[in-house]
Amino acid sequence: MTFRPPKGTDDILPPASQAWRRVLGTFDSLAERYGYELAITPIFEATEVFERGVGEGTDVVQKEMYTFEDKGGRSLTLRPEATASMVRAYLGSGSQTPMKLAYSGPMFRYERPQAGRRRQFWQVGVEYLGEDAAGADIEVIELGYRFYQDIGLEGLEVQLNSLGDPADRAGYRSALVDFLTGIADRLSDDSRRRIDTNPLRVFDSKQDRDKLAGAPLPIDYLSDAARAHYEQVTAGLEEAGIPFSENGLLVRGLDYYTRTVFEYVATGLDAAQNAVGGGGRYDGLAEALGGRHVPAVGFSLGVDRILLAMGEGGGEPAPLDAFVVVADEARRAAATGLVRKLRETGLRADIEPGARSVKAQFRAADRRRATAAIVVGDEWDDGEVTLRLLESGDEQRVGNDAEIISTHIGSETS
Ligand code: HAM
């Protein structure tokens, strides 16, 4: 009997996993250079963390959570996103100073699976906690933009909007309710229900989006302070040379946002899942979780979707620099020692672990796309190995020292 991965989940194996390693590595080093330190939180949380954090009225909480009761009768949920967890952890740490956190890992949402919309998907993200200055918003948006540049994603757009503060939202809400009530007979049942409970979430409805032309927009209801913050963000992005467009309809699907919201859009993907990342400011989230006031801003980027947009996922296996061929089993210990030293010099090197014919070992070296085969045979007694370049077939004897071999291979590949 064989099993397949559950619906909406994927096995990520070589060669596709090569691109994953590159993208995750790029994020890791970039976040570190911007001063974001690693945070690891549990993959499941008390269900309330998401109900209160992400918001009861959102699609994520109402329809998409993997919620279960554990053997102790607690209601737990596989995290649908990480921001609420990061804030919970920050509050729990008792820290009173700002914290810049970076994370990477799987998230879970019970969605209708399709390309770029998975039930288990991978996000990388940062959260700048405890900082209300617009400079934090700018830095976060810039970091995401640089990441897409570094991995070579083309056709990327940054979309920006501001949702204002809770007080601004109250004025906006009543204008929006009036507008939606006026068109209620044309709205879906879901949206009609939301008019009273959470009218902003009507913008999330794919069915109703085109009926919202002429709806009042949050950006027109900002207080002076929220407007000044927004203007600082736009000015800072211009100064940083980050191209962006303002999108008054961008409200994001989670309830915790205040002021700045943004999305990174890959223009090459279908509109239904062309957001390759998104984020914003969430100054009220810590209080919604029962904590003190912690202004904060962050983003999460969807790695599955990014790789889809880049057309990555196939490709060749990762190449090796050197494949050590054991010409004579009596030399195995020497050959194993050599492969170890080659790896220490930083080369990607491998060897067959058991006895094989020399021909079979060369076939393995070709299959692994090695630059060179290093043959360990009788010449070892003279302090040498035979180095064969697999593409040209050129052969020469070189010293059996890992550094010497590494220099020879380096001059071939540079
Ligand atoms: P989000 O917009 O829900 O925001 O998700 C961020 C990104 O995760 C999306 O733009 C998309 O690329 C990817 N994503 C979401 N759902 C799926 C899915 N089912 N399959 C594949 N990819 C998906 C958040 O999660 C917030 N925590 C962002 C944030 C951080 N806001 C402030 N800080």
Report on the architecture of this protein.
It is a single chain. This protein has helices at about 15-35, 45-55, 60-65, 85-95, 135-150, 165-180, 190-195, 225-240, 285-290, 305-310, 330-345, 360-365, 400-414; strands at about 35-40, 45, 65-70, 75-80, 100-110, 120-130, 155-160, 245, 260-265, 275-280, 295-300, 320-325, 350, 370-375, 385-390, 395-400. With about 425 residues, the chain is α+β, with helices and mostly antiparallel strands. The strands form 3 sheets. An 8-stranded mixed sheet has the order 1-5-6-11-10-9-7-8, sandwiched between helices. A hairpin with an 8-residue loop joins strand 9 (about 260-265) and strand 10. Helix 1 (about 15-35) runs antiparallel to helix 5 (about 135-150) and helix 11 (about 330-345) crosses helix 13 (about 400-414). The longest helix is centred in the first third of the chain and has 18 residues, at about 15-35. The protein is elongated and about 90 Å long. The two termini are about 50 Å apart. The mean pLDDT is about 95.
